[in-house]
């Protein structure tokens, strides 16, 4: 039984296909070379396939799981042709990913309790501020009132960039001068959101990872100060990762999940890279849902991550 069914709109699926085009082409070329001149899936083909998956940034641990699933299928079906390998990979990876979490796309569920506070973390340059801007646009498009908080006070450029997005989306932004206490900005933002009866608050935070202890202290302080206004804040801690960095994104995920309680992930810049396989590995290895993927420059190109549709696009012929 195939896992695949079309649940995205045609336009979203076309954007996803285009965004993963480099990853798709790179993988199919490697797979083609691995099975060239071979008709049957045997141990040699599986060894080559393992190398293809690892070199496509799927990650060693997830690759081993995939190979084991295909080995079991080979043992069960006795003969599998190499011409079937791409379709088998699609089904087995979709099955693997759907066992840990449903393949259905899931957005942030904004409850009736207001404001819903999202704290966004990630190193500089991963597309953190752009992700915040696009998220704000999505929430506003649903009729929700959004407030942004510029708590990345380490760089003036971060505050300026968030201001540009606030102007573009036409939502209020709370900010202070560069070098201000990030926790103070977060406090002001949440307090303003309560006064404005806002539905959603999105807080940008500093993207430094040179010292995990300091990062942990800073993020803990930001949380503690926000909780003086909204007791359970933040409702989400969204970690943004740059998909084009491949295995480095794994390392960042490890570092940030050790430093703070990350509840969801966004993987950006997939349209400009052949390293899209990293999403398969991250989705499998971290017990944290990938909520969003960035597959283009457009304001609507931050997509809710759907595992089934992603795998379908990744292995599309």
TrEMBL record:
It is an enzyme of class 3 (hydrolase). InterPro entries: AAA+_ATPase, P-loop_NTPase, Signal_recog_particl_SRP54_hlx, SR_rcpt_FtsY, SRP/SRP_N, SRP54_GTPase_dom, SRP54_N_sf. Its EC number is 3.6.5.4. GO terms for biological process: SRP-dependent cotranslational protein targeting to membrane. Gene3D superfamilies: P-loop containing nucleotide triphosphate hydrolases, Signal recognition particle SRP54, nucleotide-binding domain. Residues 289-302 form the SRP54-type proteins GTP-binding domain. One of its GO terms (cellular component) is cytoplasm. It is a peripheral membrane protein. It comes from the Bacteria. It catalyses: GTP + H2O = GDP + phosphate + H(+). GTP binds at residues 122-129, 204-208, 268-271. GO terms for molecular function: GTP binding; GTPase activity; signal recognition particle binding. It is found in: Cell membrane; Cytoplasm. Its main location: membrane. Keywords: Cell membrane, Cytoplasm, GTP-binding, Hydrolase, Membrane, Nucleotide-binding, Receptor. Pfam families: SRP54, SRP54_N. SMART domains: AAA (SM00382), SRP54 (SM00962), SRP54_N (SM00963). Involved in targeting and insertion of nascent membrane proteins into the cytoplasmic membrane. Acts as a receptor for the complex formed by the signal recognition particle (SRP) and the ribosome-nascent chain (RNC). Part of the signal recognition particle protein translocation system, which is composed of SRP and FtsY. Belongs to the GTP-binding SRP family. FtsY subfamily. This is Signal recognition particle receptor FtsY. It comes from Leeuwenhoekiella blandensis (strain CECT 7118 / CCUG 51940 / KCTC 22103 / MED217).
């Amino acid at each position: 039984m195939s896992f695949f069914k079309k649940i995205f709109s045609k336009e979203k699926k076309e954007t996803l296909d285009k965004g993963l085009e480099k990853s798709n082409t790179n993988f199919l070329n490697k797979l083609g070379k691995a099975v060239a001149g071979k008709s049957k899936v045997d141990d040699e083909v599986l060894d080559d396939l393992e190398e293809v998956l690892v070199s496509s940034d799927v990650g060693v641990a997830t690759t081993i799981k995939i190979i084991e699933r295909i080995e079991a299928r080979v043992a069960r079906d006795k003969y599998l042709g190499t011409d079937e390998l791409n379709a088998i990979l699609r089904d087995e990876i979709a099955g693997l990913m759907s066992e840990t979490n449903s393949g259905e796309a899931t957005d942030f569920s904004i409850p009736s309790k207001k404001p819903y506070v999202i704290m966004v973390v990630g190193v500089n340059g991963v597309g953190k501020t752009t992700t915040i801007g696009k998220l704000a646009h999505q929430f506003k498009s649903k009729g929700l009132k959004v407030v942004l908080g510029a708590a990345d006070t380490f760089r003036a450029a971060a505050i300026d960039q968030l201001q540009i997005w606030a102007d573009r989306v036409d939502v209020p932004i709370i900010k202070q001068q560069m070098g201000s206490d990030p926790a103070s900005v977060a406090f002001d933002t949440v307090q303003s959101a309560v006064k404005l009866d806002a539905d959603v608050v999105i807080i940008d935070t500093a993207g430094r990872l040179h010292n995990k202890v300091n990062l942990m202290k800073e993020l803990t302080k930001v949380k503690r100060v926000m909780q003086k206004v909204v007791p359970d804040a933040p409702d989400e801690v969204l970690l943004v990762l740059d998909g084009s960095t491949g295995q480095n994104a794994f390392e960042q995920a490890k570092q940030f999940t050790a430093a703070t309680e990350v509840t969801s992930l966004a993987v950006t810049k997939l349209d400009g890279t052949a390293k899209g396989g990293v999403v398969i590995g991250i989705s499998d290895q971290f017990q944290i849902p990938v909520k969003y993927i960035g597959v283009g420059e457009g304001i609507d190109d931050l997509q809710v991550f759907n595992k089934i549709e992603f795998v379908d696009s990744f292995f599309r012929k």
